[in-house]
Specification:
Blueprint: H1 5-8, E1 12-15, E2 21-24, E3 27-31, E4 36-42, E5 57-61, E6 65-68, E7 72-75, E8 83-85
């Protein structure tokens, strides 16, 4: 099965250990030397309809990803294995 990077944006990330739904893929980290995906990044949930920014984003390493299907990406990781990174604050000026 072949897939494009843009197709990943429409796939929801679900943890198979506890059934947690993290959201949809927002970005991917690539190793340009080997041409492989290192991790998938899922943006955090919006705070107050997006007016107050977002929560931390989740970063899932390639080792946590178990299956990529048509609609979902299944990951197997404990809560501490999904790295949470704070969102960059945008400067409006």
């Amino acid at each position: 099965m072949r897939s494009r990077m843009t197709d990943l944006r429409y796939k929801e990330v679900i943890n198979i250990i506890d059934g947690s739904r993290y959201g949809y893929v927002g970005d991917a980290e690539l190793d340009l030397v080997s041409g492989r995906i290192c991790s998938l990044i899922v943006p955090g949930q919006a705070r107050l309809f997006g007016l107050l920014g977002r929560f931390e984003e989740y970063v899932f390493s390639w080792e946590c990803i178990k299956r990529i299907g048509e609609d979902t990406i299944l990951v197997e990781c404990q809560d501490h294995q999904a790295t949470r990174l704070p969102r960059e604050k945008r400067k409006w000026f």
